[in-house]
Structures are given as C-alpha cells and as structure tokens.
Amino acid sequence: MKFFLKSVLFTVLAVAMLATPLFAQKGKPGGGGGSTSGSGCAVVATPSLSTTTATPGMNVGIFSRITNCSGRARYTVTISSVSSCGEETIIASSVITFNGGESKLISISYPIAPDTCKGGSSVFVNVYSGGNLLASQSTPLTIQ
What we know:
alpha+beta; Immunoglobulin-like; elongated; disordered N terminus
C-alpha cells in the first residue's frame, strides 16, 4: 500500500511539473516573443550520458543540443526517462526562448531513484511548441 501511495503521489507531481510550463506557454499572446504561427521547427541531437551503465542512487549527467530551425520561438524542452518496467520519470521541463537558427546546449544531473527497475531504460529529450511535439531523441541507459 505504501508503494502504491508513493507511486500515485509521484505521478501527480510529475504531471503537475510537466503541465505547468505547457499551460503557461499556451496562455501567452502570440506576439510576446513566442512563435506566432503556432508551429515551429526544432532539431534535437541524440543525448549523451556521463555513463551508459548506472546503479540506483548514482547521478547521471545528460547532455544534448537543441537547434531552432525557424524564426524566434519559445519551446518547452522536456527531459525524461523510461525504466525497463515502463515507468516514466520527468527529470526536467523548461520553456526556452530561441532566436532564429539558434542552438542551445542543455545539461542536467539526474539521480537514479533507489527503487528504479533494473535493466534497459531510455533517456529522452523532447521539444514541444504548445502541445505539439516538434522533435525527440533518446539514448539507452542500463540500470544494474
């Protein structure tokens, strides 16, 4: 029962963290530095990790590059992982403003949760404009 309550609480917090930047971005008027066409273009480089094999409790560095291939735009960038047992963890989510053609490097340190399932997992970097997925890349991470 305790594990179930933790899972429900974690899921609610993760959804709240992800939804907040999306709702905030949708509420902005089109002329406020965001993409005025409602669409955009982004390219995500395959994420690099500080290690390809990790153990629970260990920190893993995640690095990637995001390139805006349209005019000035605001995108929501989300970094997440999916464990071997199918549980998704939102690591970070942020609204980032890009000038036309600009690239930005992202990096974050992510502690592997003690109860993470062992086996193959994946780390994802996704870029959204409003609610539309523009680009996504992933890389494998083995949990021992």
